[in-house]
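ok trying this again, last paste got cut off
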Amino acid sequence: MISQEILFLVLLIINTLVAIVYLVVNLIRKKAAKRSCWFRAIVMFLCPVVGPCFFFFSYLFFKMFFSKPVDLADVVFSKERVRTFVHAEEDRERNMVSLEEAIEITDTDDLRSLMMNVVRGDIQQSLASISLALNSEDTETAHYAASVLQDALNDFRMNVQKQQKLIFKGDENQANIADALIDYMNQVLEQRVFTDLEQKTYVNVMDEVCEVLYNVERERMTSAQYEAVSLRLLEIEEFDKCQKWCERAEYQYPNSLATYTCQLKLFFNSGQKTRFFEVIEALKHSAVVVDNETLELIRVFR
């Protein structure tokens, strides 16, 4: 028994010395600051024989099988871009139609399935299409569309009211809130899903929010936002307010195509033919690139 106890004590002493030597060596090499060194030393101290053997053989195994240099002879590092061609899914695309057409031609089961697929996604941009389903012959589809549309419009009303209060009470993030609210409101108002009275009310709110942003930090207003508020005001025949934003857009973004198209629509709808042709002439002599949509717009208006 005494010899066994002596052997056990010797093993403990040797194990302790190994752990201490390991830690001292790493202290000298300035690697003891790493948590892994302290962790290994503690494991070797608490697990006599097993701990040191585990770390020794794992190190030996790594050196034998994983320390060889990687052969990169067959690896090519190139900055050339590769263009991948993905074939169209013809079967899927043949079965795709707009929601407006689907409401007219699909049967009841397909129409209900279509509505479910639509509302699973982002319905914010599909409100106008969903509103068409209100006139569906299928009462269940019409009822479902009405529920979804009502919930979406109620969320819009609540969000606008909440953000409007923050803006007009002078919140420290007033400009940021106004900037985001303009885009949010336009996304819904351009779909014309409200009644005429409510549409007019919210367009005027949008005009007020734009006025706040223009007065506080007008350089943040983009050409798209000028176009949005101008077109929404034009739709409710607020010609004076629309002209105000067209003039501001012309001052801030004189070389933007949207500036010219908004003026063309305003002067045509308000019956100002002389100014309409003046804008066309100005557009011809400007450096603005005219797209096909604008050319078609000019042909129709003329």
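PB: full thing came through this time. The first helix runs from residue 2 to 28.
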